[in-house]
Design goal:
With about 260 residues, the protein is an all-alpha fold. The chain has one domain (about 5-120, about 130-240). It is about 60% helix and about 0% strand. It contains 8 helices and 2 strands, in the order H-H-H-H-H-H-E-E-H-H. A two-stranded antiparallel sheet has the order 1-2. The longest helix is centred in the middle third of the chain and has 35 residues, at about 130-165. It is globular and about 50 Å long. This is Histidine kinase N-terminal 7TM region domain-containing protein. Keywords: Membrane, Transmembrane, Transmembrane helix. It comes from Oceanicoccus sagamiensis.
Length: about 260
Amino acid sequence: MNPTSVIAASSVMLAILLVTAIYNVKGGNRYANRVLALFVAISALYLASLVPLHSALMSDYPMIRVTNSLVFLFGPLLYSYVKAMTIPGFKLGRADLVHIVPFVLLVFIGLSAFWLPEMVTTNVSPPTRKPEVSIRDSIGIVYYALLTLYGYLSVRCLQQHRASIQTEFSNLEGISLRWLYILVMITVAIASLGLLIALARAFTDIQFWPRGIYSMTLMISIYYLIAFMGITQPQIFGATVAEAPAAAKSDKPPPSIKPVA
């Protein structure tokens, strides 16, 4: 196994520990904790799929294509976690199924390319660029664009929450959601840079590093931030979302969104 595979495998072990710890928290906003546990579990499956891809075990199996497609669930799940932490009584419903459409389409494209390879071949000679590389570039652009969009929506949701309770992100006594705001901002920053890199890959011959390294870095960054917050402020995972004291009791519209300093 090369260093990339070792890092991915060790990150999967950390993810398993995080899922176990977060899912078993008693009391508090258990629904939000379960959404977060699902997010970490799905990202762990993605990281596990990188192990054979970056080692001597590399094989183009259909299951690897499916687990690679899980990256398209990162944005929706992170956004759902933010909503669960800031909106009292939030539950995922049928209307939220629209968020998994990109994932389903990517699975369909990936399996079609595996079972029907002629769908991605070309008769142009000499080829100027391999069709498979072009498909991967397109997927990378769409992925980072969607992740940036969901990150922006998450930031907006946190700003609305801050404005509605008229405080510094606190959702319970002594518990601040600023850590979550920082996590989302890190995600947006990395995703935006990833989008620029994906565009550079697509329209130039520049190869920055092996594929999958950047998305793996994103997941590891989020893991360690969650783990750090769990150690320094463990009560955040046992917190419940407080109702907006003024907005919940008034028929007046919520105050305008204020930018976060």
